[in-house]
Write a structure and sequence with these properties.
homodimer; 209 residues; alpha+beta; Glutaredoxin; Glutathione S-transferase Yfyf (Class Pi), Chain A, domain 2; 2 domains; 4-stranded mixed beta sheet
Chain lengths: 209, 209
């Protein structure tokens, strides 16, 4: 790959970690540039104008200088990196099924499991707004439902889309393996725990921190 | 395509409409089976066991009988249908950028714009729980931010990923064109309004109802 790859990230973010893990499993060199989202560093005029008008990380930068292109959304950035690799199923149904789990992750899993981790570990429960506090119980229930669903799926599958790791596993691993930091115990999800160990044993695996 | 395609849907759902619109623009025959989500018809044991353990529509069914395969998640179902067509950019960056907008839609747009439409038009404000009521203002702000962001992007682009329609447009059109039903006026978003007219003028376009 001729073009340099730079990840604009906050190292504490599981969404950013997905991209680092994808690059690591594929052996792709990836530069990083760190921002502190707690200090609003992704909401500056310069960031909004050049990197991401949505004010969020991660963003994958492809190339340098005036011709650089920017790709927000963690799962889209993983998709770019994994193009043509074994991390995306080669058949039509498998490719769509891999995306199915990645959309599930962003809609049903991340807003519950990752948000509670962010609130409880990084913001602190005492600092939450009343609107956020009212969301703790619904997000707890939504997160448990998502974990239960993936546990049932993993009871019959080594990885999400069959026998080998794909981006679906990477997307769901990022926040599942640190779900405890959001108060989600994995004791009731033995198949999730076994799958976490399988992902951690992959050649090239890198840990989050 | 040899295998029959059946959409398990609630016709009022914009997520289901995305799949019907994709099939229409591609000229693909698509059978439908309707469920009433207000009556819990996607939470029955039979539905959970066979169609989608997540208890949600849409689900795209590919094939019939014992060999049928099921694909939940609206954007993944669209991806399956559009495989190899002009609705998915052919280049590596374009394909990932198309997914970038589809993930944005599911994370930043749908949970705000579509949820308020569902609550206000179908559930009724008087029937909302206190937790839901506390979410109206944050979802209003989140939805306006999403609409503002796409308006700014469309100021410089005829469609989301360049000169022609892709799945990014279909994903974002579904709930944007009925945002008014959730109390979102499009008066401040002239580029969104012009883009809606461009989508509605596409050959093969079908309306939601």
């Amino acid at each position: 790959m001729a073009e340099t790859l730079t990840l604009h990230e906050d190292p504490r973010s599981g969404n950013c970690y997905k991209i680092r893990l994808t690059a690591a499993l594929l052996g792709l060199p990836l530069a990083t540039r760190a921002y502190d989202i707690m200090q609003g560093e992704t909401r500056t005029p310069a960031f909004l104008a050049r990197v991401n008008a949505n004010g969020r990380i991660p963003v994958l930068q492809i190339g340098d200088g005036a011709g650089a292109r920017f790709l927000p959304e963690s799962n889209a950035a993983c998709w770019y990196l994994a193009h043509g690799s074994h991390l995306i199923p080669a058949d039509r149904f498998g490719e769509a099924d891999c995306l199915r789990w990645m959309f599930f992750e962003q809609y049903n899993h991340e807003p519950n499991v990752a948000t509670l981790r962010f609130w409880l570990r990084f913001v602190g429960e005492a600092n939450l707004s009343p609107e956020q506090r009212a969301q703790i119980m619904p997000k707890r229930a939504g997160g448990e439902a998502a974990l239960r669903l993936i546990d049932e799926h993993l009871a019959a599958h080594a990885f999400f889309c069959g026998a080998g790791v794909t981006l679906a596993d990477i997307a769901l691993f990022a926040y599942t393996h640190v779900a405890g930091e959001g108060g989600f115990g994995l004791g009731d999800y033995p198949h999730v725990r076994a799958w976490i160990a399988r992902v951690q044993a992959l050649p090239g695996f890198v840990a989050m921190d």
